[in-house]
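Example 9 (inverse folding). The structure is encoded as follows.
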């Protein structure tokens, strides 16, 4: 089984499966039960490496994995071009999760919203954590949230990318609109994170088109598995209130946590609150396996 190869992996080395999905075992904290924490990044297109600071602060038992679908981040090669057919990601998600024993899925933004299209995940996951996501189309609500807080876009950079899409114009637009991702007190730190982050803009363009074509709407509401939803109040990319206002997600197995003064990467501003929330979620998962 491929799974056996994964557990034989040396931390910090890349492993690729037959679909060119990239796995990186960051660390392992073994115990009687081997949980597998699967960290899937946002964007889409953002390299999963931005999770490292968060993972390094977590100490729950299990194996901690970074996962990049083909053409995500810098998972690009001669056989996986930057303008990959991202529709294939839909079959990759379930295939990834089914490779692992006792998976706990941690998705950020796109990485957390994409699973909401797959109700079958209820049968496979031990736990689910969604950070900086939404249950429905969010762009209009994000604009309203930004306007209410006097957050204005860098329109020149945005228009330049729209009219001349390239990796360079995308990165410029991303950095000049960083104030949508981070509150003022962490803006410079956030810019450094974005500046050094491998980010394939082709994936982002695919997702923006797809959410309107669907249109995006959560088909899966976790029924029984312990679930944690985290949003920052100063996230002007995906506004925090959409899960709070959605009655379908008001369930005993779902904890919705609002982090004040935090942005799109809330652990950057409030690491202790985020790690404590992870710990509580893990305690609930552990009870189901006691």
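The amino acid assigned to each position is listed next.
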């Amino acid at each position: 089984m491929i799974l056996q190869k994964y557990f034989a992996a040396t931390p910090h080395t890349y492993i690729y499966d037959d679909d060119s999905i990239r796995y990186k075992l960051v660390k392992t904290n073994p115990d009687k039960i081997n949980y597998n924490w699967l960290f899937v990044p946002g964007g889409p297109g953002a390299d999963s490496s931005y999770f490292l600071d968060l993972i390094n602060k977590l100490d729950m038992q299990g194996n901690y994995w970074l996962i990049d679908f083909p053409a995500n981040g810098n998972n690009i090669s001669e056989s996986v071009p930057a303008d990959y057919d991202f529709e294939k990601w839909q079959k990759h998600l379930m295939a990834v999760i089914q490779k692992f024993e006792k998976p706990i899925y941690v998705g950020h933004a796109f990485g957390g919203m994409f699973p909401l299209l797959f109700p079958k995940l209820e049968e496979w996951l031990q736990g689910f954590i969604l950070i900086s996501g939404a249950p429905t189309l969010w762009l209009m609500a994000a604009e309203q949230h930004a306007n209410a807080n006097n957050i204005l876009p860098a329109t020149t950079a945005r228009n330049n990318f729209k009219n001349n899409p390239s990796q360079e114009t995308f990165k410029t637009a991303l950095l000049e609109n960083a104030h949508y991702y981070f509150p003022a007190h962490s803006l410079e730190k956030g810019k450094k994170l974005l500046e050094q982050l491998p980010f394939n803009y082709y994936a982002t363009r695919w997702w923006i088109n797809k959410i309107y074509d669907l249109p995006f709407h959560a088909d899966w509401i976790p029924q029984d598995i312990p679930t944690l939803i985290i949003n920052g109040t100063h996230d002007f990319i995906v506004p925090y209130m959409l899960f709070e206002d959605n009655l379908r997600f008001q369930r005993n197995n779902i904890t919705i946590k609002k982090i004040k003064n935090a942005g799109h990467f809330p652990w950057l501003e409030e690491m202790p609150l985020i790690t404590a929330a992870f710990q509580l979620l893990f305690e609930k998962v552990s009870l189901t396996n006691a």
